[in-house]
Specification:
Layout lengths: L1 H13 L12 H4 L21 H8 L7 E3 L16 E4 L6 E4 L4 E3 L3 E4 L7 E3 L6 E3 L2 E4 L3 E2 L16 H4 L3 E9 H5 L16 E2 L1 H11 L9 E5 L16 H12 L4 E2 L1 H9 L4 E4 L20 H10 L2 E4 L4 H5 L4 E6 L9 E3 L3 E3 L1
Parallel strand pairs: 10-12, 11-13, 12-14, 14-15
Antiparallel strand pairs: 1-18, 2-5, 3-4, 6-15, 6-17, 7-8, 8-9, 10-16, 16-18
Helix pairs in contact: 6-8, 8-9
């Protein structure tokens, strides 16, 4: 837990406002990350790769007639990153009524949460950016300082632009637990040789071991590390408060996951989405470092630079049990105008 707290401090500095930190990172400007390959007006990112032919090919992966929902339960006692939280109340019990001769009553709920960034969560265009000398840079050359972006909505960075497209793709499950022979540990150090970091060579090895076609254009790729089993929907409500607290601390103390080389490799294969059973998909050891000593490099290189989005805290257990390594993946973010991301319950069909 101490490492997690220290990591939060490092992350706070990394994303600090100009008044607190004067350092900047200008690679997005000098390397010309914008405009994207879909043009200066694009707001959706890599999901633009999806074609009718890709959709029809993905539909052909449904062989057994089985369905797995991949979302986890949204609940107050579920693990959450940093200070995020979920609060749901039903005011009134019943909230309204009775009405009419049949005395109808109804219930509504009130939810207070970081709706786009809690539980099973989708990272949209407005979630991850970089502080540059010209302002806070986000996907396709947009800045938080732009006139059409503000506290009440991110305008061209809003998740609704991705939601308009949605995801219908070939889903690829990479079973790192089977590859390693057990649950991956939280990385202890940066570098390719840490067992908690999944490299490009590991990705290729899993594809070969699982006997599936290589990762290709338009694919959505999901990583099973075993770390998410600390918060498994089947067991969670059987634990007492002390056990839940222990598991929350272990879950949040870091995570195994993709290293930068794996993310760069998948980007070269022109995928459109990553995901995992963990809270951030990529490896996060001390200071949130992965293969190198920088926090959340995959988030930056895939999302901010390339518009390859990410979905976290997935329940991949049924797919793992059925060895369903290829499947039709169907899901869309909610059309929440100006939001950073979205909750949801993706579906795998195979």
């Amino acid at each position: 837990m101490r490492a997690f707290v220290l990591g939060l401090a490092a992350l706070a500095v990394f994303f600090a406002p100009a008044s607190l930190a004067q350092d900047v990172y200008d690679a997005p400007l000098t390397e010309k990350w914008a405009p994207s390959e879909w043009g200066a007006d694009d707001k959706a990112g890599a999901v633009n790769r999806t074609t009718p032919a890709m959709v029809l090919k993905a539909v052909g992966l449904v062989k057994r007639g089985k369905v797995a929902t991949l979302g986890k339960v949204y609940a107050q006692d579920a693990p959450a990153f940093g200070t995020r939280g979920w609060r749901l109340t039903i005011p009134g019990l019943p909230t309204g009524g009775p009405f009419g001769g049949q005395k109808l009553v109804y219930n509504d709920e009130f939810v207070s949460t970081e709706l786009g960034q809690i539980g099973t969560q989708f990272d949209g265009p407005g979630h991850i950016g970089i502080k540059t000398s010209k302002g806070h840079y986000f996907y396709n050359g947009r800045f938080l300082e732009d006139a059409n972006i503000g506290t009440y909505g991110l305008g061209p960075l809003g998740v609704e632009h991705v939601a308009q497209k949605g995801f219908v793709c070939r889903g690829v499950l990479l079973d790192a637990v089977a590859l390693r022979g057990g649950t991956l540990p939280v990385p202890k150090k940066a570098g390719r040789d840490d067992p908690g970091i999944v490299t490009d060579d590991d990705v290729k090895a899993m594809v070969k071991r699982q006997g599936i076609a290589p990762i290709g254009e338009g694919d959505c790729v999901f990583l099973y590390t075993g770390h998410g089993d600390l918060w498994h929907p089947k067991d969670w409500d059987t634990f007492d408060a002390a056990e839940k607290k222990r598991r929350v601390a272990a879950f949040n103390a870091g995570q195994p996951g993709f290293g930068l080389s794996a993310c760069e490799y998948m980007a070269s294969r022109k995928i459109i989405l990553t995901g995992a059973d963990s809270w951030g998909t990529e490896a996060a050891g001390p200071g949130f470092a992965g293969e190198r000593q920088h926090p959340f490099e995959c988030h930056i290189q895939l999302q901010t630079r390339r518009g390859i989005w990410n979905i976290e805290n997935l329940d991949l257990s049924q797919l793992v049990a059925d060895k369903a390594y290829e499947f039709l993946f169907v899901w869309s973010p909610l059309k929440m105008k100006g939001a950073t991301g979205s909750p949801g319950n993706p579906v795998a069909l195979y």
